């Protein structure tokens, strides 16, 4: 019956939530925060009253006869009235108003504990514990979650698991097809990767091909080779890599000017500073060419990948584009 600690805490929580919800319905514009404070105060006082009256009885004490013939004080309306009387300061209009407005609910709760319960049986939802779509045994036909399932809240709408759609979670999303289906049961299976929509599992069962795939002469969806398209989809310093349903563009090796694949041996032509040697583009050593490339006086040539630089020889330094002898410290010229 009424009395235990956890029960009381539950009441404390639930009654407030419930009262606020009720207040919301009846007086939508009401200041919720103030209503909540008042409600909190009411539940606190309800708890206090509940504890205070816990040890009391009908005055003379419950005799065995009273307990059999009359109701016990513990569960009596007299006890409830005593508790309700202590809920508000007589000066607090809002508090008294709220209690008055919901007095009926205190009574309902007092005599039918279920009213305050937050829970509904599994597969049911809402204030009246209505069955979810598809019935409480297989809510949302086993393919989704019923909003508020197992609680006094929610609207019972299904959120379908991946692959399923519709109000009843019996339809399949694009990319899935109904392998099995009747009015109460549905099994959605993924289409072949080439299909946007389909009626079966193979690439011949597509209703429509996915992007990157096209119908062949057997009405099957096959991969489109984007790399052989005209104009080619990649830029000049890239090569194209076809993949199932798509393609990608990869950078050519830096020694190439245009290429057909990765590496210095897949160049169409060699980039500047490189020359073809046995099918591979290799660096040209400009410094060892018969015609010297660094022509200023006291200049030296230094080769690097794809190019070269001219630097001043040892003992010289660059000044206004010329190599002049370095001044040694303390040395007079
Ligand atoms: C629907 O299909 C399921 C699974 O095949 C089966 O168990 C169920 O009896 C069928 N229901 C109807 C109404 O045909």
Which labels suit this protein?
about 325 residues; alpha+beta; two-stranded antiparallel ribbon; 5 helices; about 25% helix; elongated; disordered N terminus; binds 2-acetamido-2-deoxy-beta-D-glucopyranose; Cysteine-rich with EGF-like domains 2; calcium; EGF-type_Asp/Asn_hydroxyl_site; endoplasmic reticulum; glycoprotein
How confident overall, as mean pLDDT?
Answer: 84
Strand content range:
25-35%
Number of H- or I-type helical stretches? 5
Please provide the ordered H/E string of secondary-structure elements: HHHHHEEEEEEEEEEEEEEEEEEEEEE
Distance between the termini: 115 Å
Shape: elongated
Helix content: 10-25%
* Number of beta-strand segments: 22
Please give the domain count.
4
Ligand names: 2-acetamido-2-deoxy-beta-D-glucopyranose
Strand order within the widest beta sheet: 1-2
Structural class: alpha+beta
What characterizes the major β-sheet? Answer: 2 strands, antiparallel
Gyration radius over CA: 43 Å
Oligomer: single chain
Stretches where pLDDT is under 50 for at least 5 consecutive residues are 1-11
Keywords: Calcium, Disulfide bond, EGF-like domain, Endoplasmic reticulum, Glycoprotein, Repeat, Signal
InterPro entries: EGF (IPR000742), EGF-like_Ca-bd_dom (IPR001881), EGF-type_Asp/Asn_hydroxyl_site (IPR000152), EGF_Ca-bd_CS (IPR018097), Furin_repeat (IPR006212), Growth_fac_rcpt_cys_sf (IPR009030), LE_dom (IPR002049), NOTCH1_EGF-like (IPR049883)
GO molecular function, one term: calcium ion binding
Subcellular location: Endoplasmic reticulum
